[in-house]
Specification:
- The protein is mainly β.
- 7% of the residues lie in helices and 56% in strands.
- The protein has one domain: Porin.
- The chain has two helices and 18 strands.
- A 16-stranded antiparallel barrel has the order 1-4-5-6-7-8-9-10-11-12-13-14-15-16-17-18.
- A hairpin with a 2-residue loop joins strand 14 and strand 15.
Length: 341
């Protein structure tokens, strides 16, 4: 009887484990980069060194799922970023800086992620060009480069006829100087949007709003993208606006933002090689009037399903009120090796 109970317990444990799984995956992405910065006073400086995450993001990720029954599933994700070109130390091994982190639930209606999951706007800003969020994409230059927010909820509905609705919210934190460790004000964020996929066509839009905290300005970003796969080539286009609204404090007059930007992207697959290009331009309507242009061409060679070589040449030029501390023009020559596991 005792042996039978042990056997049943072992069988139950096996059945339980069969309903859950944990996957470990990651990326190494070091690259040799020559960067030349030309400044507003005419001075220029060049550097050549080993840099990190120019095509992918060097990281180790733990992802787990559990089947709760009735179509309900639980999941978690922990992404730990690191610098693939530096010796291991306490400051760069599994730093967690910028890594995605969440626990979530999903069913036939969609999924909700709690923690610091990627925002809908991140997907919209990265989809219109072949370089995603990396050098040459214009990410963070043409748009505000929104990636994820702490203490947030991210919801994605199950696609219906190719249409997926997405929403994210991060609550506001009020400043509190009373505790021995003061609490800093953090703005509330809402991020609403959709994606639509129909065969070779993909379209998306997000509206990202930041409620000014303390003396900060309210801020609104609109992001739209479209891609179309012709088979022999894939075309992409993006459009972005960013503008400050009412100030949280009437005394605030600096830090105003008002800009519009667009980009055109191109992917050309040729067997194991993919040729890529992107052109992005920003019209800055604020006082500084720092208009910006990013141009990039590159290629990726797939050595296998997990390993690729890549090269890229990028120019990033700013025209406007540029002081000596800001580069008026930067050029990048990049040669990298990416391995996924």
């Amino acid at each position: 009887m005792k042996k039978s109970l042990i056997a049943l317990a072992a069988l139950a444990a096996t059945a339980s484990f069969a309903q859950s799984s944990v996957t470990i995956k990651g990326t190494f992405d070091p690259s040799l980069v020559t960067q030349k910065n030309t400044y507003g006073n005419g001075n220029s400086v060049s550097q050549t060194n080993l840099q990190n995450s120019r095509q992918g993001t060097s990281q180790v990720t733990f992802f787990g799922t559990e089947d709760l029954g009735g179509g309900l599933k639980a999941s978690f994700l922990i992404e730990n970023d690191f610098h693939a070109g530096q010796a291991i130390s306490s400051t760069n091994l599994f730093s967690g800086v910028g890594g995605e982190l969440f626990v979530g639930l999903s069913n036939n209606f969609g999924s909700v992620k709690i923690g610091a999951a990627n925002t809908p706007t991140l997907f919209a800003q990265a989809s219109a060009n072949p370089f995603g969020t990396k050098t040459g994409s214009g990410f963070g230059a043409m748009n505000a480069g929104k990636v994820r927010n702490s203490n947030s909820f991210v919801f994605s509905a199950t696609p219906v006829a190719g249409l997926t609705l997405n929403a994210a919210y991060a609550a506001k934190t009020n400043a509190d100087a009373n505790p021995s460790t003061a609490v800093t004000a953090v703005a509330a964020v809402t991020d609403l949007g959709f994606t639509y996929v129909n065969g070779p066509l993909a379209v998306g839009y997000t509206n990202y709003k930041v409620e000014g905290a303390g003396s900060a300005l309210d801020n609104t970003l609109n992001n739209a993208y479209l891609t179309y796969d012709l088979g022999v080539a894939k075309l992409g286009a993006g459009y972005y606006t960013e503008k400050n609204g009412a100030a949280a404090s009437a005394s605030v007059v600096s830090g105003f933002t008002d800009s519009k930007a667009y980009n055109f992207g191109l992917w050309v697959p040729m067997g194991a090689v993919t040729l890529m290009a992107n052109y992005a331009k920003k019209d800055d309507k604020a006082t500084a009037n720092n208009d910006r242009t990013v141009t990039a061409v590159g290629a990726k060679y797939e050595l296998s399903k997990r390993t690729s070589l890549y090269g890229r040449y990028v120019t990033d030029k700013t025209v406007g009120t540029v002081n000596n501390a800001a580069a008026a023009k930067s050029t990048y020559t990049i040669l990298g090796l990416q391995h996924n596991f």
